[in-house]
Specification:
The chain contains eight helices and ten strands. α5 links the parallel β6 and β7. α3 packs parallel to α4 and α7 runs parallel beside α8. It is about 40% helix and about 20% strand.
Length: about 300
């Protein structure tokens, strides 16, 4: 079966950045790229309607033209474009249900010095059953500051099984011929009031956390013995640590677990949310099938 990457495209600068990332990923993995423009018709919204042949022709050309541009720019790319009627978030989630990846764009810096994740991207990431990659302009892996461009980064807590996340992380690093850096962040120890942290206890905790991490990763390391993997256990706040580490990575992978109560509906945990808003590289959010505590 042909591997397919779905790109959510609307002609905005952020979707153009996502398009080039998705095209490069499709070439790297031998996948077919499907450029999808989800358009929900609103009467008189922009003076354009898909209810007429002329209107349909205009709207259909948007993804088709982008697919042609990408094919010219990325040698060996197999790409096609289509316009699908419907609410963008719902449509993209449905179209990408059996895809290897769904790629969407995100805007630049917002008022609080974080990246603006639009409502469509938020909804897609919260509801998608396929991994979603969030790309924004200026996050090219070869850009300034990518001093460890060969290391794919994944945030992982060995206390919460995440097989799909680890599958995706090991595959992403393997396909790139890159080192995989697995980061586990555990709560920073605090001493009693008026006392400092016991250095010996801190070292013992770090050793224990590294051992837990190595044990959890063992099946994946055994399945890909050729892949270089670096385990890293750090004390601190998970979101802060992952964001800091993302300055040196071409790709950050994080998980999205199902809530314990299905009635709560889809949601994005705070660590994943922070990574989406503040990480300086593309972020891949991988949903897990099982229920559990969200990050």
């Amino acid at each position: 079966m042909t591997r397919t990457i779905v790109l959510g495209y609307d002609g905005s600068p952020e979707s153009v950045a996502a398009a080039d990332w998705a095209a490069a990923e499709a070439v790297r993995t031998g996948a077919r790229l499907r450029v999808v423009y989800a358009w929900e018709w609103q009467p008189y919204s922009l003076g354009i309607t898909d209810a007429t042949p002329a209107g349909r022709s205009v709207m259909d050309a948007v993804p088709a033209d982008e697919a042609e541009r990408l094919a010219r720019r990325h040698r060996g790319l197999r790409a096609d474009g289509e316009r699908v009627s419907g609410a963008p978030a719902t449509t993209l989630v449905e179209v990408a249900r059996s895809a290897a990846l769904l790629v969407v764009g995100s805007r630049g810096l917002g008022k609080m010095h974080g990246f603006v994740v639009g409502s469509v991207a938020q909804s897609v990431i919260a509801r998608a059953t396929s991994p979603v990659v969030l790309v924004r302009p200026g996050t090219d892996a070869s850009g300034p500051g990518r001093t460890r461009a060969g290391e794919v980064l994944v945030g992982f807590d060995p206390g919460h099984p995440a097989p799909r996340l680890l599958d995706a992380a090991f595959e992403a690093a393997d396909r790139r011929g890159a080192v995989l850096r697995v980061v586990h962040v555990w709560p920073e120890p605090h001493g009693l009031p008026g006392t400092g942290v016991d250095p010996e206890a801190a070292r013992a905790r770090e050793t224990a956390e590294i051992a837990r991490l190595k044990s959890a990763l063992a099946p994946w390391r055994e399945s890909r013995p050729h892949l270089a993997v670096r385990e890293c256990a750090l004390a601190g706040k998970p979101a802060d640590r992952l964001i800091a580490e993302s300055h040196h990575a071409p790709l950050l992978l994080v998980g999205r677990r199902a809530p314990r109560l299905a009635a709560l509906g889809p949601r994005i945990g705070h660590v994943t949310q922070a990574a989406m808003q503040h990480a300086t590289c593309p972020v891949e959010v991988v949903p897990e099938d099982h229920e559990g505590q969200d990050d």
